[in-house]
Amino acid sequence: MFNKNKKPFSLRARFLMATAGVILALSLSYGLVAVVGYIVSFDKTAFRLLRGESNLFFSLAQWKDNKLTIAIPPDLDLNFPTLVFIYDDKGNLLWSQRKVPELEK
Questions:
Q1: Which InterPro entries match (predicted)?
Q2: What is the end-to-end Cα distance of the chain in Å, rounded?
Q3: Residue 70 DSSP symbol
Q4: How many angstroms separate the CA atoms of 71 and 55, rounded?
């Protein structure tokens, strides 16, 4: 295995190389866990914000005279007003946060 002219690494050198390898493996795995955790938490937070804002708009929405109006109180501060619907290319509603029959017609 080893060339007879080469001596094997000393115990101290082997210990230092093993320690460096373990630290490298832990650092790389921590980076992977941090990135995956950030992606998962970002998706959950974005979904929670969109759900909350869509619930707010659905509760403030009014259907009068074949028009959708949203009665926003004057003192309400809206940072990112959103109302999410997904339609196909033919204009059919594919997805909405909740079933709203007035908006599906």
A1: PhoQ_Sensor (IPR015014), PhoQ_Sensor_sf (IPR038429)
A2: 79
A3: E
A4: 14
CA distance linking residue 103 with residue 49, whole number of Å: 21
Contact 71, 62 (CB under 8 A): yes
DSSP label at 75? T
CB 9 within 8 A of CB 16: no
If we measure between CA atoms, which residue out of 97, 11, 20 comes closest to residue 61? 97
Which of 56, 45, 48, 102 lies closest to 83, judged by CA?
56
Q: What is the CB neighbour count within 10 angstroms for residue 16?
A: 12
Q: What is the pLDDT of residues 21-51, one digit of tens each?
A: 999 999 999 999 999 999 989 888 888 887 8
Record the tokens describing residue 47, joined without a space: 């979904």
